[in-house]
Amino acid sequence: MLTDPIADMLTRIRNAHLALHKEVNVPSSKMKVSLATILKQEGYVEDVVVNEGMITITLKYLEGRPVISGLKRVSTPGRRVYVGASDIPRVQNGLGICILSTSSGVLDGMTAHEKKVGGELLCEIW
User: Fold this and answer.
1) Model's pTM, two decimal places?
2) What is the predicted pLDDT for the residue at 1?
3) For residues 60 and 20, is the Cβ–Cβ distance under 8 A?
4) Most Cβ neighbours (<10 Å): which of 13, 68, 78, 85?
């Protein structure tokens, strides 16, 4: 039984990038579909396809190097991290994104800042 499915998803993406795989399959949930959709919107992955119980994420490479150079889980089941709208961090001085779970849904840091909502800081990606 997994205790942290989001960390599992990020680890699968990290490991697939290190092995230079083209795709990675992740068990599906609403939260993970939202995370994968944000990754696609921000240009970190090529495509996201939701099948029966699985999400297939097509990874993106530029000149043979992965677009995602780092993934970090911030809020864990043992230590939840919440931020206000004015306290949303800048990742790698604006070169990365953070993803939050807010009352308006799962949003990236810039969108949450524009909507002036805070929430649980799920992860940082750069």
Assistant:
1) 0.92
2) 63
3) no
4) 13
